[in-house]
Amino acid sequence: MTTTVAGEQVRNARRSNPTLDVVLVAMFAALTAVLGLMPPITVGILPVPITLQTLGVMLAGALLGPWRGALSQVLLIALVAAGLPLLSGGRGGLGALMGPTGGYIFGWIFGAFVIGLMTVALYDRARAGWINAVSVFAACVVGGVLVVYLAGSAWLTITTGLNFGTAIKGNVVFMPGDTAKAVIATVVAVIVHRSYRGLIAK
């Protein structure tokens, strides 16, 4: 009963208070920034650190849908461009965005959008919970991993002259961690959508 009431409150709030969208976008931009407080770890042949911030991207897309999820990352990147040190390792400014890792960061926008798009299309409350979990996980992998890797690798090729195939292969070291993040995002998203049914537009 409490869960149903809570979900109805969120649904009604979205219909009557458009300010909620702004609040949610800001909240998930902040969440992604907070996840950057973990010190980055650089491994492999790519000058790209392992961070928790892609977990924020996955959560934004899976919980907010395509447009609000993507806008949360646009807001974060705009703040970084303004000089705020919101990226992992306390990085900020245009230099951080235009450097070798810039493609991965801008890829967060497209990644969150794809995750949200797939979640809205595939998530069905009438289905068994495990089917929805598989759907959200697939969305997180496609948007939060593949899309981000492609954007990052393309930018690496442009900025460093690294062969695109080599850049793609270099992402292999990130896959175990990113898969774990996709699992975490899936568990959180399924629980939240079950409790707050009006959070994401269907």
Describe the structure.
With 202 residues, this protein is mainly α. It has a single domain (2-195), classed as Arp2/3 complex 21 kDa subunit ARPC3 (Orthogonal Bundle). The protein has 9 helices and 2 strands. The protein is globular.
The CATH topology annotation reads as Arp2/3 complex 21 kDa subunit ARPC3
Can you tell me the CATH class?
Answer: Mainly Alpha
Main structural class: mainly alpha
Largest sheet strand order: 1-2
The CATH architecture = Orthogonal Bundle
**Helical percent range?**
over 70%
Number of helices: 9
Number of strands: 2
Distance between the termini: 22 Å
The averaged pLDDT comes out at 88
Largest sheet: 2 strands, antiparallel
What sort of overall outline do the alpha carbons produce when their principal axes are compared?
globular
Task: Give the DSSP E fraction (strand runs of 2 or more residues).
Answer: under 5%
Cα Rg: 17 Å
Low-confidence stretches: none
Family: Belongs to the BioY family.
Membrane topology: Multi-pass membrane protein
Pfam family, one: BioY
Subcellular location: Cell membrane
Annotate the secondary structure layout:
Layout: H1 2-16, H2 19-34, E1 41-42, E2 49-50, H3 53-64, H4 66-81, H5 94-98, H6 102-122, H7 129-160, H8 164-170, H9 175-195
Summed up:
The protein has 202 residues and is mainly alpha-helical.
Key attributes of the depicted protein:
2% strand; biotin transmembrane transporter activity; 202 residues; 2 strands; two-stranded antiparallel sheet; mainly alpha
